[in-house]
Amino acid sequence: MSVLFQPFAQRSLTLRNRLVVSPMCQYSARDGLPGDWHLVHLGSRAVGGAGAVVAEATAVSPEGRISPEDTGLWNDAQAEAWARIAAFVRANGAVPAVQLAHAGRKASTYAPWLGRGAVPPGEGGWTVVAPSALAYDDLHPRPQALDEAGIAKVVDDFRQAARRALAAGFEIAEVHAAHGYLLHQFLSPLSNRREDRYGGDFDGRARLLLEVVAAVREVWPDRLPLWVRLSATDWVEGGWDVDQSVELARRLAPLGVDLIDVSSGGLDPAQRIEVGPGYQVPFARRVRAEAGIATGAVGLIETAQQAEAVVAAGDADLVLAGRAFLRDPYFAAHAAQALGVEPPTPPQYLRGW
Ligand SMILES: Cc1cc2nc3c(=O)[nH]c(=O)nc-3n(C[C@H](O)[C@H](O)[C@H](O)COP(=O)(O)O)c2cc1C
Questions:
Q1: What residues contact 176, with CB distance under 8 A and at least 6 apart?
Q2: Which class would CATH give 8-352?
Q3: From the CB of 55, is ligand 1 less than 6 Å away?
Q4: What digits encode the pLDDT tens for the residues 70-100?
């Protein structure tokens, strides 16, 4: 009996299995609007059997986009464009989820295949914001430090984007606080040098994320799960680390967060990552065991047996996979087959399995 292909219930939702499509930027939107690419990309992975499909980092404000080609949820036209996609994912058996994001000092950069580093203001780029006026590296723009009014706007932008995500038909909202983007920039002492109440000690650095999560929970209904993606460690001496992630997870749970999606890195170019199969799984295990909250494990989990073992060992409740799903939209159905379970598939394709 596979545990990976057991349903997973949270609040009023049930995922048909525990293999989830990790959020992945497609750099294929115009004016923040998802289009046919997103429908086919996300829709085919629902058809392919995933338990939930998490749409890419979707900006809560125009200045929060990583690139000019990012999707957004800062206006109602974007919510309408997402509605068709969320409905298709839902109709094909997967839970539609969206990652709400603000890139902070890593905003206004080229899509990977269009260039490197900062997009200049004349070519569609913009002024970027951060906790402190420290650039990520020489290729990235020097950010403006947010003042209190700017921080309040960030909190409200997340709240309004969550409201639109709900209107669009998404059933899980994930707050992106990982990979060196704005909320992670506030968490880490390497990027947050503020001396006001949003910086300094752990409480100060965690304040913005806790405010954002509380604001999202205000509009995200009790019947639906709320997830947070964290980078468990910066992989830099003196940076954000696993102990702080555990403490943060303990504080997020009472605010109505249902799962921590545990990733790592992305904050500082000095990072030295020990990459290998399942290299972030031990972080998910620690957060789950020590903070008593459900976790998702992600990162080089690429075979059915490996994903099964993560859940069977109690390291995590869910497995998120990224690149495996890029190579194979049917990764979940193939994993089921490999584990001797009936592949999740729509009736139109039944005869194929
Ligand atoms: C093309 C691509 C785009 C990505 N975009 C995002 C993103 O929007 N948000 C995010 O949290 N992670 C993003 N990631 C990271 C993945 O979600 C995932 O954490 C990472 O690829 C490790 O998992 P994997 O080894 O299964 O691919 C992206 C990864 C890839 C390959």
A1: 23, 57, 99, 100, 101, 102, 183, 229
A2: alpha beta
A3: no
A4: 999 999 999 999 999 999 999 999 999 999 9
